[in-house]
Amino acid sequence: MIGPAALPPVVVLSQSDWGLAWVFAQDLASHFAARGHAVVYVNPFPKRFPRPREWRRLLGRFLDRPRLTGSAAHTCPPGLHVRTPLTLPDRNRLFAWINRRLLLPGLRRRVLAAAGGRPLVFIFQPFATAVAFAAMLDPARLVYARRDSYSDDPRLDRLQLRESELLAKADLVVCAGPVLAARSSEWREKALDIPGLVDFAAFFRPLAEKPAVDPLCCYFGHLNQRVDLPLLQAVAERFPLRLIGPIGVDWSPGKEVECLGMVPVDRLPDLLADTDVVIIPYRLSGFSRSIFPYKIFQAFAQGKPVVATRLPALEPLSSLLYFAATADEFKVQIARAAGEGLAVRRRRQEVARQHDRGLVLESLRQRLLGGAAEVS
Predict the structure, then answer these.
(1) Which residues pair with 218 in a beta bridge?
(2) What pLDDT is attached to residue 70?
(3) Regions of the chain short of the pLDDT cut 50
(4) Per residue in 324-337, pLDDT tens?
């Protein structure tokens, strides 16, 4: 065991801005900061050039001011610093070279100055610039957080993917669900499956019978290209619908939809508590077939029924979920879910308890500290 004075700093090279939907990267950074580590959370390296109307986001990146980028919904805990990189998208080798030679050295100085030592590095984006930057930090331990199947995303087909290189270099590969874990079987000895986490104490609510004749449905998280918008709209036309989180696509919900936008994570449990059914209407594509929705265990901690597209990564939880494909099937399953008894809700809460972020991430932290001690 390493004493507090020897705790290594942590750098999280995330795939999600600090202020966007709360996912694994924020849980990870928050847990290490709460345990006394200096943590530097690096917002994602850009995958495209900003559009003209996104000048505030561009200015925020240039000035390293996350609030100007629109990422300011979550309060930073003590000991956690957010840095926003100013680099070119990895669209070709020239851009990757410019990043590596001209733009990354300054970012490295700023990150290491905030970190204060040789860090444990968690990297989420398997692209050329992110992989090069991770190497520049000379990590005590390198962890690849394999949360998405980037090779299946057609929007990223021009980016310089370095996933094979990253898998070989990483000391540990943390996978999001059974699909990505299976794809990491070649690296079985260093692969760990952590599909999702929940702050169980914050989200848990006692169960009570609650008749729901007209159930309030809820979608929470980032509303982006993964979501089947026509299906979501069809649900909204039949049931009251609450949306919690940023909307990152061109879509104008009707007046019948309650849009709350981005909220701090500590408000989410209460906003979720008075809803009846959580819906996850994802599009099925090569990219989404590997997704394990991070929100699952947050909903389970409250016993909430979840109606979802049949994502392969969710099959192990099929007895606790309601699957649907079409708008009509979603409507039928929502009505069915709203009338379920308490027994299945208790089972969901027990599953969520097993994925409590404190328990899971503390085990991960101790595993990495042991390895850091060996290489110190």
Answers:
(1) 242, 278
(2) 61
(3) 1-4, 373-376
(4) 999 999 999 999 99
CATH of 4-197+356-375, one of 3.10.580.10, 3.40.50.80, 3.40.50.2000, 3.30.70.930: 3.40.50.2000
Query: Which residue's structure tokens are 């989180």?
Result: 245
The residue with tokens 């070989």 is 168
By the 8 A CB rule, do 72 and 265 touch? no
Q: Which residue has the tokens 């702050």?
A: 199
The pLDDT of residue 374 is 41
Structure tokens at 64: 């390293």
Helix (H) or strand (E) holding 241: strand 241-244
Span 95-109, pLDDT tens digits: 999 999 999 999 999
Confidence (pLDDT) at 375: 36
In three-state secondary structure terms, 254 is coil
Residue that has been written with the tokens 């990253």 in this structure: 166
Domain ranges of the chain: 4-197+356-375, 200-354
Tokens of 307: 């109606």
41 neighbors 29 (Cβ within 8 angstroms) = yes
CA dihedral 254, 257, 262, 263 (to 10 degrees): 160
**CATH level 2 (architecture), domain 200-354:** 3-Layer(aba) Sandwich (3.40)
Say what the pTM is: 0.90
Rg value, the chain, Cα: 21
